[in-house]
Amino acid sequence: MRFVVDSAHHGLRIDTFLSSRLRNYVPARIQRMAAGGLISVNDAPCPPDRRMARGEEVLVRLAEPPEPFYPPEPILLEVLYDDPWLVAVNKPAGLLVHPAGPIEGGTLANAAQALLDGQTVLPGLLRPGIVHRLDRETSGVMLIAKDSASHAGLTGEFERSAVEKSYVALVAGRIEEDETTIRHPIGQRPGSLLMSSETEALGPRPAETIIRVLRRFRTTTLVEARPRSGRKHQIRVHLAAIGHPVLGDVYYSTASGRREPVGHSASLPSDTRRHALHAAAIAFHHPITNAARRIVAPVPSDFWSALGDGCGK
């Protein structure tokens, strides 16, 4: 298959560019195909981290099968916004975004397929294009594209850091500064699936999070967190690094020590509640109309469960 890079995709990485064109191939699979020599740009081998320039010609040999079709499942989703090109939903805590490892269903992808099937005369005609992620135990707003053009536009905005995200979190301890900016690089924790901002972190990359205090309780603080970069587990890692981990976070809380996830999905142990992190709002330009949009997700009642029975208020 051949593609020509247009001006809207100039500067994007090869995996981001192709995932917007090949909707059933996730970025990790595209990176593997590039490393295996299956992708070339202007007739030259393409490394997995190469960025595209306008007018370049990309050749792809589809030697790997596409991602599987996620069967629709009647999982109730709160719809925050809906138009012919995209839908925004309020993901509940505990819902995995995609099937992973031994978990083959019961995910946001399955629920989104059912939602889109209800909008067409032919099931499967629309495929959910999920362009960003939330951790399993994080609730909040998620954007889902309905067609390739919307998927490509939203993917480009995320890649260029043109999307503004706002989270609310309950954290341990009282934060005395009204506003602070955390600029700790984040990399992989050695021998772990988790991330770290400590000096031994592998492959650290710059990361920035703005923290603003919304309300102080006796032993906890309600904050707004605005990430200015998109590192894995960024808000959770940064808050833990300044000594104020997210309540209920069993992996980055200093109180829980060096607890590690078990299995690919890194699900919470059964004896714990959700962590108190919620994606409260997202602002972007509509990929088709270019209109500025800001979508707000109401904070669910279970968010406050991390406080326990009045403890810390």
Task: Walk me through the structure.
This protein folds into three domains: 2-60, Structural Genomics Hypothetical 15.5 Kd Protein In mrcA-pckA Intergenic Region, Chain A (Roll); 78-159, Pseudouridine synthase (2-Layer Sandwich); 164-307, Pseudouridine synthase, CATH 3.30.2350.10. The chain is built from five helices and 17 strands. Residues 262-272 have low confidence and may be disordered. Strands 5, 6, 7, 8, 9, 10, 14, 15, 16 and 17 form a ten-stranded mixed β-sheet that branches. It has a four-stranded antiparallel β-sheet with strand order 1-4-2-3. α1 (14-21) crosses α2 and α1 packs antiparallel against α4. The protein has helices spanning 14-21, 27-35, 108-117, 148-159, 234-241, and strands spanning 2-4, 39-41, 44-45, 57-60, 78-82, 86-91, 129-130, 139-145, 164-172, 179-182, 186-188, 195-196, 202-205, 209-216, 220-227, 277-285, 292-296. The termini are far apart. The protein is 15% helix and 27% strand. With 313 residues, it is α+β, with helices and mostly antiparallel strands. It is globular and about 60 Å long.
Q: State the end-to-end CA separation.
A: 58 Å
Mean pLDDT across the residues is 86
User: Radius of gyration over alpha carbons?
Assistant: 20 Å
Strand content: 25-35%
Tell me the structural class: alpha+beta
Q: Give the biggest sheet.
A: 10 strands, mixed
Provide the low-confidence segments as ranges.
262-272
CATH architecture annotation of the largest domain: 2-Layer Sandwich
CATH fold-level topology of the largest domain: Pseudouridine synthase
Q: Which term fits the overall shape?
A: globular
Q: What are the secondary-structure elements, in order, as H or E?
A: EHHEEEEEHEEHEEEEEEEHEE
The counted number of beta strands is 17
Q: How large is the count of helical segments?
A: 5
The CATH superfamily of the largest domain is identified as Pseudouridine synthase
- Total separate domains: 3
- Assembly of the depicted chains: single chain
- Into which percent range does the helicity of residues fall? 10-25%
Q: Briefly, what CATH class of the largest domain? A: Alpha Beta
